[in-house]
Fold this sequence. Notes:
single chain; 734 residues; alpha/beta; CATH 2.40.50.460; inorganic pyrophosphatase (n-terminal core); Diaminopimelate Epimerase, Chain A, domain 1; 4 domains; six-stranded antiparallel sheet; five-stranded parallel sheet; 24 strands; globular
Amino acid sequence: MTPEVLIACMADQLTSKLPDRRLTRLPIQRWQISLQKPEIAQKLAILTNLSPIISQLLINRGMETKEQVQAFLDPESLSLPSPLEEFPDLAISLELLESAIASKEKIAICGDYDADGMTSTALLLRSLRTLGADVDYAIPSRMHEGYGINKRIVEEFEREGVKLILTVDNGISAYDAIAFARELNLKVIITDHHDIPQQLPPANAILNPKLIGESSPYRSVAGVGVAYILAVSLAQQLGQARGLIQPMLALFTLGTIADLAPLIGVNRRWVKRGLQQLPKSKLAGVQALIQVAGVGGGGESGRGGVGGEGGLLADKAIHNSHTDAINRTDAINRVSTTSNSSNPKSLKPEDIGFRLGPRINAIGRIGDPQIIIDLLTTDDMGIALEKAMQCEAINKQRQQMCEEIELEAIAIVETEFISSLQQDRVLVVVKSNWHHGVIGIVASRLVERYGVPVFIATYEDETHIRGSARGIPEFNVFAALEYCHDLLGKYGGHKAAGGFSFPAENLAALRKLLCEFANKSLELEHIKPLIKIDAQANLNEINSQLYQQLNALHPCGIDNPDPVFWTANVQVIEQKIVGKGHVKLTVAQTIDNQQFKIKAIAWRWGDYFPLPSQVDIAYKLRENNFNGNTTIELELIGVRAAKHSHLSLTSASKPSKSIFEYNQRHYTCGIYLNGELPELRIKNSEGKVLAVQPGQSNALLGTNRQDAKIVDISQPQYDGIIQAALKALESVRS
């Protein structure tokens, strides 16, 4: 970037902060644009026979060698270690289950009411019953008991003659309940993936990827992934794996994506298989869900398209027989399903994330989880369709409840907390009569809106409060809950999300302690919604060819996000509200006197309607299939005031340094290179330097870079001095 372009960008960034009514309606965001490495990308493109843009996207995801790229693009090429080698308690878990099946001891599964927990429960029910086990299940009431196994469930299991309890997607934090079960001489296997508490419960065996090495390919599995590993390993040990893998893989895929598990390691390998198999799944419940949700039926893709609302493993040696059996059996299933050409379409993660997953999750939030267990364990298509229709109706009810609670929560924030948000750096929002089954969704929406961690809760009764938490990348929710341990009752979760309960009398103290933790964890620049951007693109580059190239990165999801592009200075030539607060628009860009137009959707952006006529946009690409026509469109996730060119200075040979006065103090300023990036530096008489890069909302301030602090340049004291420096540079260069 030349000095004059930098000056123009800086000036327009400041101009965008003037009190223009339209501009103040833009979402408050921080854009993080990945450092472009064109030389490395070009070299990688030659080595891998990929396009430079795909190479750059892979570099952004931490891959810069041919070997790394090969392992990522072809996860089947990975050589996986045996799960028995990775999970220390897997062998004893298999021994306990095999013994229970052989002696006809009753096994009981304690599941969870979210999509991960319900798919895990269904997966183990189906597999254990097929393997001859006497098995039943229970899921705690979200409304009356909250998350995880408890003493009531343990007592009920004991009365029913249960000898072995198997938790799925819960149990790692349930010390008291597990200790109680052991006092009753019940055997317990915990399968969970949540973060490890300070004291492990006294179970006979614990399977949790957080207890294995961070470099393990199994480290990223969700609860359903742990259940899948256990079920497949047991089936192989009993010599009955054939025929079980495909249905279990379908449930694994549903649960993994719906739980937002990272799509890396074995998750990427198995989800890629599962997405290919799901449309052809022999599970009646999966087919019913696909049918009711309209997935793969020729309508709009993803969240409903622009026109819609949103819608382990070849016998090599005995010591790794578990791994090899899973590979061998999966290979057989891949061949058999691929040969079925009746429906060759492969699903994408967004089909599950926005279509199938919410219909499952809605049941756990405000319905009876038995509906999902029946749906995913029945072989009767009639029953499956009936249960799928129930999911559809309850999901619509859930949507309405979310909208109402979100509006109430926003009103509370705007009235009580907005003025102290930068000081608090966290939101704690509590109100009676909210349904705690859906407040976690509202928490996510508040995070999107305000850019801070959100702890949202409602009263269970006059003396107890229960809630959900959602974080931002720089904030660890589980660590925050542990920080407040003395004030809480039950709590659990992981880095990004959690659940908790506490005595109502502790509310003020809890809010104070969470603010204290947030201020220790977060800098001021962290409390704006973060938009991570891969690369810049012009609208004439957006086409079907580019979209097809992006398929190499699929499946995308957590830790392998959909590529995000940005385009500068586009015109908004059409826009209107569609559905419940979505903005449908057409944007255009003029390149070499030719205008290029493309349609776009901005989900839930009704608050920012109408958008200014000229903006910079950040977006993902979406394929829209409607009425037999396929087009590539944009899903907007970011927008900011456009960087115009009217202040550009034409001569790059003129000086880019100046002296100026601001508030009766003298300063020097200039344009410098920081590595490959240009930087505006303003120095005062005491030797302090303010270093600002274009397009950034924060800067460094100090006498040297090592000790400099980060400051928000939208604050008036920095805003004014930067504007004065830019004017000084403009006058020198004109």
